[in-house]
Hints:
This protein is an alpha/beta fold. Helices cover 32% and strands 26% of the residues. The protein is built from 18 helices and 21 strands. A hairpin with a 3-residue loop joins strand 9 (170-171) and strand 10 (175-176). Helix 1 (25-37) runs parallel beside helix 2, helix 7 runs antiparallel to helix 9 and helix 7 (190-203) packs parallel to helix 16 (351-361).
Amino acid sequence: MSTVPPTSTTAGARTIGGTGDPLAEETVTRFVADALADVDLDGRTVCIVIPDSTRSCPLPLLLGAVHSALVDRVAAMTAVVALGTHAPMSEDHLARWLGYDVDDPARRYPGLQVINHRWDDPATFVDLGHISAQRIGELSGGLLHVGVDVKINRAVVEHDIALVVGPVFPHEVVGFSGGNKYFFPGVAGQEVIDLSHWLGALITSANIIGTRGITPVRAMIDQAAQLIPAQRLALCTVVQTHTGKVLAASFGTPEDAWAAAADVAAQTHVRYLDAPVRRVVSVIPHRYDDIWTAAKGFYKLEPVVADGGEVILYAPHITQLAAMHPEIEQIGYHCRDYFVQQWDRFAHLHWGALAHSTHLRGAGTWDPHTGEHDRVKVTLATGIPEHVVRAANLDYLDPATVDLDAAAADPDTFFVPDAGEVLYRLRGEQ
């Protein structure tokens, strides 16, 4: 006879599960139903903000549970895929990701409209207001003094309730993903995306990734979220690595639900090594289809790599650096100081692209006389042509020459299958 795990209240959120075994699907479904039963939904409209497939998440289970709890109560509901600036998902891809028949989505989700966040279309957005340069200075700890216009997908504003549904992981820009991050940058305009990502880059990925609490970037995101007129709620989950099964779930405001889930993610998705490693082979799963997304296989290993060490991103299936951001081929990958100390050359570019560049290149220095000196060697063993890789300031390795079995057995190599979601740190470091 199975025992249903008890629910509790943590940081103002209703919670279930933890760091132990995955929750049964029926337990998750009941938790969602009970949580939404306590919300005033009758006759109202709901915008459900969901992740794209670059995040491990049992979305058919979660969205199915939410849909079942809403369908007979709400006047209308729309699911918006929080792409940030990722590529739009095709109809076939959406059907697989959400678990419906591409020819008959209404059979699985009657009454639900599903749309991509079209970040490349100005008609997508509505203005929410402005955050002043003074306030950005306060939130960023003095790192930035630039005001920002806050824009968001109009679907969020045109519904009574905005409900985030998605997982929480260590994150290279904000510390831990989830919560209000699904609004900014998930369905946000370029302005907040650029500013928040560049702030994370100034702090550096290695210094912010896996940081609990309200980081400067999280503070900026939360400030922007206060401008959303809809009632904001969130169903945040922590999923088991490699299986995607739900370990824990929390429901409440995006701030409270995220905080509860991040506490669990900090215990389940951060692993510690006793000493630095010299060589990493990071095997990139197919959910990442360009380096823009696959770079997570570097971000989450950089903290454990010794000075002068190497991270090899093994991904023969990847054939381009950044499908939606071709400017990366012209910018290349460089450390933070390369841009900061030559700011006049780069300030006109999208700061989000500059941030991505620094995140994959990692820590380093730049000097006008001696040039750039990077702490770690980054090598791509992908389907990207060698000349493109080297022109982008990265090292190249023919993936056909990589023996994964030998790498896994090599005591001098730290072998990471299915890289990109678990963060590795050195023991004793926060």
